[in-house]
Sequence to fold (510 residues):
Amino acid sequence: MSRIISIANHKGGVGKTTTTLNLAAALSSMGRRVLMVDLDPQAGLTIASGLEPDALERSIYDVLRRGEGAVDTIVRSSFGVDLLPANIDLALAELELVSAIARERRLAAVLAPLRDAYDDILIDCQPSLGLLTLNALATSDGVLIPVACEYLALRAVRGILLYVAKVRGQMNSQLRVLGLLPTMFDRRTRHAATTLSQLKKEFEPKVKVLNHVVYRSIRFAESTAKGVPIIEYAKALPGADAYRNLARDLIAGKL
Amino acid sequence: MSRIISIANHKGGVGKTTTTLNLAAALSSMGRRVLMVDLDPQAGLTIASGLEPDALERSIYDVLRRGEGAVDTIVRSSFGVDLLPANIDLALAELELVSAIARERRLAAVLAPLRDAYDDILIDCQPSLGLLTLNALATSDGVLIPVACEYLALRAVRGILLYVAKVRGQMNSQLRVLGLLPTMFDRRTRHAATTLSQLKKEFEPKVKVLNHVVYRSIRFAESTAKGVPIIEYAKALPGADAYRNLARDLIAGKL
Ligand SMILES: Nc1ncnc2c1ncn2[C@@H]1O[C@H](COP(=O)(O)OP(=O)(O)OP(=O)(O)O)[C@@H](O)[C@H]1O
Ligand SMILES: Nc1ncnc2c1ncn2[C@@H]1O[C@H](COP(=O)(O)OP(=O)(O)OP(=O)(O)O)[C@@H](O)[C@H]1O
Ligand SMILES: [Mg+2]
Ligand SMILES: [Mg+2]
Fold:
């Protein structure tokens, strides 16, 4: 039975898509059977996986609407990991789901038949706390929260933690925060170090601030443009190590 | 009668809040009467203006719900520009507005009585294309689209342009794209230059790619943490010039 992990944070541009892709690639390179789910209408994960959202015959929108058919919608990413892809149609799902029955559990129903086929299912969430993100958290065992090491991202953390606590209280008592993943840490500036120490001061020990700090590097944007994960594009990059170590610790049950 | 400009892009972390704040400060320093509107439940603009979202007695959520009372909700930011502030309650507005009458024009009704008191009203939008952003675009004369000079941000531009065209066609024929504002341009990497030239190739001449390129600098995150606009915090920074020149060109009607 697979573990389902959401990568979520309503603050935009903190590295959710980058984390989903690179963690999935690292887990897969260690022998795990991994499925990525793109739950963002911008389809960043689908694009970064080397696919054209507009060229997809079926996407996760169709699956959510019909409540079935995930198996036939899964495609292979450019680096060999399975993906349930998205396109802009998914933006319709938010308004269409509002009046549906069991609207928060559509994704859970859709993923249920897949759970024996994979060890890990990673869901890339959009930068908002609407119905799609709610669907992701409602069906997840854990949530990984990337936090860019900058002031506004730090200030947004309280909001996502409150939201996760609400979902755990009202819909999914299994849901655990796996940790806050520091991203885009710029070693050349004091600002990042100050932000990271504030993050620890404010949220530890209730929530773990992961020590797999992902340093800022332009290699991430370059690798995304090529549809190649960082662990292949820039093997020796500290950021690649961070995602490999994160994958290893996840497999070892340390998170 | 004031001009209303939305700063919008569903791609997260591209500099929407930073642009709203610094453009507002620059316009105000040139004698314009400016109102900022925070339309994002994360309340980034409210925080960066030196205010505590949780300590607000009234916020834009109350105003949207009641359909009035904006004048009594406006507060002064730490740098002297008026702000219609937000807090996390605004996340409720999205679901509550769905079934309201004239749900797309709530913001227009609320801002109408203020239009004679200001020259420019700048609306900071959240990273999604839901009802709040729709309200902003439905009442705007122009939309400014910040685009980080990185691959995934480039790929998201088509999506926001299609959405703006839809709003112009169905709700607000005045709505114009003022331009794509290149942000976070890292001069040390080829990736930014490649992305910027692709942006121009793909979207000009239909849409203007503004030449006020905002270079990447940690000074932006530092200034936001202090609640001080970049034009005061780091006057000589090229990024401060970019926002000053953008303000000057807006006043001169060049955009
Ligand atoms: N450690 C890093 N160092 C430098 N750049 C990074 C890093 N991680 C991600 N990036 C880049 O930063 C940008 C934002 O990352 P990404 O798109 O993964 O964030 P996101 O949280 O998924 O954004 P959104 O909120 O729009 O979904 C991308 O251009 C990405 O390539
Ligand atoms: N030119 C720049 N150079 C470097 N950092 C910048 C620049 N502009 C903004 N930033 C920083 O990048 C981060 C993202 O910017 P900002 O929060 O303004 O984006 P946004 O589009 O409003 O994000 P969201 O999608 O979450 O609303 C912030 O930490 C901000 O301080
Ligand atoms: Mg993303
Ligand atoms: Mg913002």
User: Anything to note?
Assistant: Chain B touches chain A at residues 10-14, 17, 41-42, 44, 47-48, 88, 91, 94-95, 98, 126-130, 148, 150-152, 155-156, 159, 162, 186, 188-189, 191, 218, 221-222, 224-225 (CB under 8 Å). The beta strands of chain B are 3-7, 34-39, 75-76, 82-84, 120-125, 142-148, 176-183. The longest strand of chain B covers residues 176-183.
